Amino acid sequence: MTFDTSVVDVQVQRSFSSTETNTSASTGKENMLPSEDSNEGLARHGSPYKEVSTDELYDQWASTYDTDGNILQFVDDLQMRNLMEQFVRLCSSRTLANDTGRLDILDLGCGTGRNTLKLLQSPWPSSVETFIYGWDGSQAMLDIGRSKCADVHHSTPDRQFGALFEVVDISDPANVPEQCDSFFSGLISTLVLEHIKIETYFAITARVLKPGGYALITNMHSDMGRLSRAGYKTASGERIKGTSYIYTPAETVEAAAAAGLELVGEAGEAAVDEWMFGEEDVGHGERGKVAERARKWVGTKVWYGMVLRKRGFW
Ligand SMILES: C[S@@+](CC[C@H](N)C(=O)[O-])C[C@H]1O[C@@H](n2cnc3c(N)ncnc32)[C@H](O)[C@@H]1O
Fold first, then answer.
1. 190 alpha carbon to ligand 1 midpoint, in Å?
2. Which of 63, 187, 194, 263 could form a disulfide with 270 if both were Cys (CB 3.0 to 4.6 A apart)?
3. For ligand 1, mutation pick of 108, 188, 192 (most atoms within 8 Å of CB)
4. Residue 247: which CATH number?
5. Cβ contacts of 45 within 8 Å, gap of 6 or more
6. Ligand 1-lining residues (CB < 6 angstroms)
7. Which ligand 1 atom sits closest to the C-alpha of 170?
8. What number of other Cβ atoms are within 10 A of residue 165's Cβ?
9. What digits encode the pLDDT tens for the residues 247-257?
10. Which residues pair with 292 in a beta bridge?
């Protein structure tokens, strides 16, 4: 998620798991490093960023967000296949075991509904009423998500649900409605943490989940965050950015644990997934082709993701 991390026509996989415990000194520090992306190199040319609110950044980005070939979205799409499957299975089995008959699932910072749509299309148990919610601070991103997911509602008559989208600014826990406390059985939040103070983010996550509820979280990796950040080049050529923070996977696990959320894994092994492109993945390769513009990220971890569980039971 940077000015120029786009990948097109790509089909590669390069991921591994990590239980990294070392933490760097970056927690909570706003990312003030210039982007080194071409487009053409802010650092080299000294072009200034205009600081805008994160909502404004995404309001402006919304119309091209799904189509500008961003490599983080690409990696996230690939990695979410397994993570989402695991998340749906965990939430479903707990609900079936407890016979609550109802699942409420939140996409926190849902944006244009890229992953809300996947939630809607997931194989939730047919005996359970499932409700999907999307919260985001950007009205323009939400509008796209709403229209994208409206089609799913109509195309699956056997599944009488759609997604409920609302503007909620999660930079302040006071904005989160009290009736949502301990309400959601599961929550996904993809590529959002970068924009929020980590203590606030996990305070909200822990607050809205039921005890025993699951959270699937992905984020820009700190190794990439030290070099780049979420930003957008407007039609007039102006470069804008919102608020960004750099968090390592280990810092994320620690902050989650402090809020009462523990890392879960399958086959008894709890781990954070991380992603790094290899040289052999760029431009050619048996597994497909990554666009040349991803080459500068070879050898840099760009993404991490994890599934967490709030302590307790519902
Ligand atoms: C990179 S996008 C990710 C969107 C979506 N989750 C995805 O994976 O495509 C980050 C999203 O976080 C939202 N966001 C950032 N700060 C926020 C805040 N304080 N409150 C609510 N949403 C916020 C933005 O509006 C944007 O839609």
1. 8
2. 263
3. 192
4. 3.40.50.150
5. none
6. 1, 54, 58, 76, 109-111, 114-115, 136-138, 141, 169-171, 190-192, 195-196, 230
7. 20
8. 25
9. 999 999 999 99
10. none
Minimum-distance ligand 1 atom for the alpha carbon of 218: 8
For residue range 26-51, list pLDDT tens digits in order.
Answer: 333 333 233 334 332 232 234 578 99
Alpha-carbon Rg for the chain, nearest whole angstrom, is 19
Buried b (16+ CB within 10 A) or exposed e, 136-162: bbbebbbbbbbebbeebeeeeeeeeeb
How far is ligand 1, taken at its centre, from the CA of residue 295, in Å? 26
198-207: b (≥16 Cβ within 10 Å) or e:
beebbbbbbb
Question: pLDDT digit string (tens) for 151-204?
Answer: 775 444 455 556 789 999 999 999 999 999 999 999 999 999 999 999 999 999
- With respect to residue 73, please indicate whether it lies within any of the assigned structural domains: yes
Domain of residue 69: give its range. Answer: 15-310
Beta strands in the chain (DSSP E): 15-18, 50-51, 102-108, 129-136, 163-167, 184-190, 209-220, 231-233, 239-241, 261-264, 272-276, 301-310
Given this model, what pLDDT does residue 229 score? Answer: 83
Atom of ligand 1 nearest to the CA of 169: 20
Give the mutation target among 195, 198, 218 for probing the ligand 1 site: most ligand atoms within 8 A of CB.
195
SS3 state of residue 43:
helix
**Single-letter amino acid code for the residue at 195:** H
Residue 4 lies in a domain: no
**6 in any annotated domain:** no
Report the number of distinct structural domains present in the chain.
1
Residues 15, 199: Cα–Cα separation, whole Å: 27
